[in-house]
Design brief:
Number of strands: 8
Strand order of the largest sheet: 3-2-1-4-5-6-7-8
Largest sheet: 8 strands, mixed
Distance between the termini: 56 Å
Mean pLDDT: 88
Order of helices and strands: EHEHEHEHEHEHEHEHHHHHHHHHHH
Strand content: 5-15%
Low-confidence stretches: 1-25, 481-491
Number of helices: 18
């Protein structure tokens, strides 16, 4: 069955000899007549999509002659009263403060389905919603809240440039069912949100500004500021205070480049901390049926955002690192080293240990970034929807811990033996990489603890329904994940 949303819309007036025609199917005689009250951008896009989907459309306007040129020829533009009387289902596409101007249509709209597509100007937590106010104005009509999360652009361009989901709610199951059928025919996916009381939540959805990103972004910024100031204190301020040497030129690139991987590794570790906390809590409780603390629930739902913030810092670190040799300061240092080597009559300055360290350091870093890129790509909905749960879990968990191990090894190779060099403890502060390694090493050790057979078997039983407080004896299925061993609960 062809995708309705992929069908081309109406061509503008003046094309093909001044006519406006549909390349999609013409109106279906059996389809209900759909009315639209309002002539704004959303109304025009909605009319075009409805006509392209085979519906007969009638548009109600206060000035029909002026608005007719903006709509497809297949849609009839008439007065609001005439549109309300002809339509079986009516979209109310006027601003909510103008709903009261439609009261004169109350007798005509009685018994009909009204779809409220309005949004508020700010988040409303107290209510009532626009849809509930509209229901008070038209008590004899069936009010359905929906289409307010779909933009005019999405209606025109289809799902490739917008979301397919349309959230719907209504106190009338019959009215909601008819709107859901209309959604599917237009190529959208209706999502039933229940009764009209859910309309307040639906109206607030388009007004939220990245609600699930707020904590991860703040955490990323806070870590960046913390590590940047720490690196500035050790690498820039300390030489100036103790030796009068000005190296403030390091601030824009070098200090930032040392800070970014620190933030990336800590943020990446924070992706796996809540999973470990949840596992150890279930082991402690001996059941999976206790609710996690609210802070842990929120953390678990934001792991994707933490990971993507980590990926951004890692990519920026790679770009900054590639730009290091392009700086003037680097060239000056290189020339100074060459001159010093000539003056000291050093013919071969090769350091085998340093060469090995750098080769391994770069190679492991590339592998870590590659695995992190794979995790970032598979977190995209378009990719995640095309893999099953086992594949997704393998990538995000198994390969995720491999990426964390590689990133940790990358940092260890960067540090090499500097942790044991007293000169690295400027202002008696440890090198940055020592602080950064604390969390990822803790996470990896926690993961290893969960892989201990006795711990893994007990956690597996708990996640299959076993409870410490109940006397239940059962045998887990013999699959490859349990190495053929029989798991029996002993209570």
């Amino acid at each position: 069955m062809p995708d309705e949303m992929a069908s081309p819309l109406i061509r503008g007036r003046g094309e093909r000899g001044g006519s406006r025609c549909l390349e999609a199917s013409m109106s279906d005689p059996g389809a209900p007549v759909v009315g639209i009250l309002g002539t704004g951008d959303f109304s025009r896009s909605l009319a075009r999509r409805l006509v392209a989907s085979g519906y007969q459309v009638v548009v109600g306007s206060r000035t029909p002659k002026r608005g007719a040129a903006l709509f497809p020829e297949e849609a009839e533009v008439t007065s609001q009263m005439e549109a309300a009387s002809q339509a079986d289902l009516v979209f109310v596409a006027v601003f909510p403060e103008h709903h009261s101007t439609l009261v004169e249509l109350k007798p005509t709209l009685a018994g009909k389905t009204l779809v409220d597509v309005s949004n508020g100007l700010r988040i409303n937590l107290d209510g009532p919603s626009n849809a509930e106010l509209l229901a008070d104005l038209f008590p004899e009509s069936s009010i359905v809240k929906g289409f307010n999360t779909i933009s005019a652009w999405s209606l025109q361009m289809g799902p490739r440039d917008g979301s397919r989901q349309v959230f719907l709610c209504s106190d009338s199951s019959k009215a909601k069912s008819s709107v859901m059928q209309l959604c599917r025919r237009m190529g959208f996916i209706p999502v039933d949100m229940g009764l009209l009381s859910a309309s307040l939540e639906i109206e607030n959805l388009p007004l939220y500004l990245f609600p699930s990103w707020r904590i991860p972004v703040l955490c990323t910024v806070a870590l960046f500021i913390l590590f940047y100031l720490y690196n500035f204190l050790r690498d820039v301020l300390q030489p100036f205070v103790t030796a009068g040497k000005s190296v403030f030129y390091k601030m824009p690139i070098e200090t930032v480049n040392v800070t970014l991987p620190s933030v990336a590794l800590v943020m990446f570790s924070l992706v796996y901390v809540p999973g470990l906390c949840a596992a150890f809590l279930q082991l402690w409780w001996g059941t999976k049926y206790n609710r996690f603390p609210k802070w842990l629930d929120g953390w678990l739902t934001r792991r994707k955002q933490f990971g993507l913030c980590s990926f951004l810092c890692a990519v920026l670190h790679a770009v900054y690192s590639m730009c290091l040799p392009l700086r003037k300061s680097f060239r000056y240092k290189l020339l100074n080293l060459a001159v010093k080597q000539v003056k000291d009559r050093v013919e071969d300055s090769w350091d085998n240990a340093e060469a090995w360290r750098m080769e391994l350091y770069i190679s492991v870093g590339i592998m870590a970034l590659g695995l992190l890129s794979l995790l970032a790509v598979t977190s995209l909905p378009s990719v995640a929807n095309n893999v099953n749960w086992r594949e997704f879990s393998f990538i995000q968990s198994t390969l995720g811990y491999c990426a964390l191990s590689m990133a940790t090894l990358h940092t260890l190779l960067y540090g090499w033996d500097r942790a044991f060099d007293p000169a690295q403890y400027r202002f008696n502060l440890p090198p940055t990489f020592i602080l950064v390694l604390i969390l990822p090493i803790t996470v990896l050790l926690g993961r290893l603890a969960l892989l201990v057979p006795c711990v893994a078997m007990r956690l597996g039983k708990i996640r299959r329904g076993w409870e410490k407080s109940r006397h239940i004896r059962f045998t887990l299925p013999d699959d490859g994940s349990h190495n053929g061993l029989e798991d029996v609960s002993h209570v």
